[in-house]
Amino acid sequence: MEGNSGYKDYVAGLTAGIAMVVTGHPFDTVKVKLQIHNTEAHGIQYKNGLHCAARILKTEGVKGLYRGATSSFIGMAFESSLVFGIYSQTKLLLQGGSDGGKPQPQAIVPSAAFGGAIISFILCPSELLKCRMQVQGADSVVLSSSRYGGPLECALKTVKYEGITGIFRGGFTTLLRESIGNAVFFSTYEYVRYHLHLQLKDASFESSQLTDVGVGIMSGGLGGIACWTAVLPLDVAKTIIQTTPEKNQTRNPFLILQSIYARSGLRGCYTGLGPTIVRAFPANAAAIVTWELSAKLLGIKRDLN
Question: Do 287 and 4 meet the contact criterion of CB atoms below 8 Å apart?
Fold first, then answer.
């Protein structure tokens, strides 16, 4: 990338976040529903992700799949802008001002982890509101007096009953998930992107808009799958921490996962894997393609030579 790209990296990242929410939010709603209902001690509510999605569509319609999308749009737009911007700028700094050639893990991993750690402070409250909105659907056991009419009401009630720190419930788990997840995502993305372009070049394929989109889809999609495979147990713990009505519920993600593992095994720790993986490929592919196209339109250059 050009050394003076500055704000452009953040603008490109913002467009990537919007594309990710539009594509992936319905899958995320199903994932959250599964994580709440299928990890509770009293039994499983949904057979699988398809059963859960069908149930939501039957009882709430399409709007049920986009429940909590408002806070998600706001959170993801800022989060994506920051994470892509911080990652790009930090990587550029660690690589001495050049962005090209073979991926350098010593620059990619710390840049991605740093970006993930920073955005976790924004992502935590927005995801708390999103998750609380998502779990109060038709199948929820939440009391009507505790229901939220929208994300603003959810935020106000959370602060009223839990204090300002209640908005940041699950913050440590979010930080862990984002630091590890972004390091895995960007590492996979960079290596897949590099090797695909290398193979296309060796096969005498001319670089075009179509081939760039194809590489973006594959590198972004595989990066998303790798990321969520690595951090889904932390996400399960985060969802439980943020949505449980129990005031004495531990905030330690490892203790929660230990409890789930004792009850349901490894499968329990990976509750929601189906819709998460199904979502990860198109959502992250859309984000990367949008990011790269936006970067190109804004004049940010990335060379592989």
Answer: no
Single-letter residue type at 285: A
Structure tokens at 79: 């989060």
Q: How many residues does the chain have?
A: 305
- Residue 119 is predicted with a pLDDT of 92
User: Residue 3: pLDDT above 50?
Assistant: no
pTM: 0.81
Q: Which residues contact 45 (CB under 8 A, 6 or more apart)?
A: 37, 38, 139
- Alpha-carbon distance of 147 to 141, in angstroms, equals 10
CATH number at residue 132: 1.50.40.10
CA dist., res. 56 & res. 37, Å (int) = 13
Q: What is the CA radius of gyration of the chain?
A: 20
SS3 248: coil
Structure tokens at 35: 């994580």
Domain residues for 44?
Answer: 7-297
DSSP for 73-140 reads HHHHHHHHHHHHHHHHHHHHHHTTT---SS--HHHHHHHHHHHHHHHHHHHHHHHHHHHHHHTTSTT-
Residue 202: pLDDT band (50, 70, 90) is: confident
Q: In Å, what is the CA distance from 126 to each residue of 91, 123, 158, 167?
A: 27, 5, 12, 9
* Confidence category of residue 41, pLDDT binned at 50, 70, 90: low
- Kindly state whether residue 214 falls inside one of the protein's structural domains: yes
How many domains does the chain contain in total? Answer: 1
The residue type found at 127 is E
